[in-house]
Design brief:
Among the domains are: 39 residues, no CATH class; 75 residues, Double Stranded RNA Binding Domain. It has six helices and five strands. By secondary structure, the protein is α+β, with helices and mostly antiparallel strands. 37% of the residues lie in helices and 18% in strands. It has a five-stranded mixed beta sheet with strand order 3-2-1-4-5. The protein is flat and about 55 Å long.
């Protein structure tokens, strides 16, 4: 009978290329699900079953109302998170003959053109949107950076990713720095707002 060797956890994790915290998270997932996990599984099963009956058309807000009507005690953000973890996405079917409207907004030239080295403050601002998973659901954070100082001069956060969130971040930066608008270029990669404008 061969003797089974047991290696220290630190050496085992190093050989396997995993962290100790990652190992303990994996080990915790192997345990029997607790009451909260069972409750989440029950809600998720209901949401996916109801979405299937409705041909995957409704979004998380509609499914949240369905769950409320069925007697489930859950929040809107919780429903959104559970559906995202389950990989569900609404796929609303287009009506026959439907045509997408063509945007009338002009296509702006790329004035920045990846010239990120700026020697003066309040000459070029750039913004980016980050999606953060929280316990209550998704949080969107828009930050505005001054390329001249490499400092964050404004930000905004919210539960919905929209052009208004970008504008709120820009307004925050404007109040903080009070630049000369005609000399400032604002560049945004957000799909919900125009690419870049001079703020005259």
């Amino acid at each position: 009978m061969h003797r089974q060797l047991q290696w220290p956890l630190s050496i085992t994790c190093e050989v396997l290329g995993v962290s100790r915290s990652g190992y303990y998270r994996w080990k915790g997932r192997q345990r029997r699900p607790g009451k909260m996990q069972k409750r989440h599984q029950s809600i998720t099963s209901f949401l996916l079953e109801r979405a299937k009956k409705m041909k995957s058309v409704p979004g998380y807000r509609k499914l949240w109302i369905e769950a409320q009507d069925e007697g489930y005690r859950c929040g809107k953000n919780q429903v959104q998170r559970l559906l995202q973890e389950a990989g569900y996405r609404s796929c609303t079917a287009l009506k026959p003959g439907y045509r997408r409207t063509v945007s009338t907004l002009p296509v702006l030239p790329n004035l920045l053109n990846r010239r990120f080295s700026v020697g003066e403050p309040n000459k070029v601002w750039v913004s980016d949107t980050t999606q953060i998973r929280c316990k209550e659901g998704w949080l969107y954070l828009v930050a505005v950076m001054d390329l001249g100082t490499r400092q964050i001069v404004g930000y905004a956060q919210g539960a919905v990713n929209s052009s208004q969130l970008v504008l709120n971040a820009l307004e925050s930066a404007w109040k903080y720095s009070q630049p000369v608008g005609k000399e400032l270029l604002f560049h945004s990669d957000s799909k919900t707002t125009r690419r870049q404008v001079f703020l005259g």
